[in-house]
């Protein structure tokens, strides 16, 4: 736990105000920039649009997410892939497997009927 117990968890006041008195799922996506806010039990079931620096990623907290921060479920970096010789070999093998599967499927449909 990164925050002291005497301070308690940090939950953004504006978020609590937005969800107070509303049923989970009744309102649309609640947009927020408060990535550091912890997920409270009152937030379970609501849908939040958490900003990742570029756009809003929808997060619907569940019971397992209580205590975690909203920013953990909205990644800010996009993983493309690793490169190099090994990656090229894997891509080539995948392409050959797809071609073989397509040929097998075509030959199965082209068989003459008796």
Question: How would you sum up this structure, described in words?
Answer:
Strand 2 and strand 3 form a beta hairpin. 28% of the residues lie in helices and 10% in strands. The chain folds into 2 domains: 61 residues, 2-Layer Sandwich (30s Ribosomal Protein S19, Chain A); 30 residues. It has 114 residues and is an alpha+beta fold. The relative contact order is 0.12. The chain starts with 12 loop residues before the first helix and ends in a 5-residue tail after the last helix. The radius of gyration is 24 Å and the shape is elongated. The chain is built from 2 helices and 3 strands. It has a 3-stranded mixed sheet, with helices on one face.
What's this entry about, in short?
The protein is of the alpha+beta class. The protein has helices at about 15-20, 85-110, and strands at about 30, 50, 55-60. The chain contains two helices and three strands, in the order αβββα.
Secondary-structure map:
Blueprint: H1 13-19, E1 30-32, E2 48-51, E3 56-59, H2 85-109
Parallel strand pairs: 1-2
Antiparallel strand pairs: 2-3
Keywords:
114 residues; alpha+beta; 30s Ribosomal Protein S19, Chain A; 2 domains; 3-stranded mixed beta sheet; 3 strands; elongated
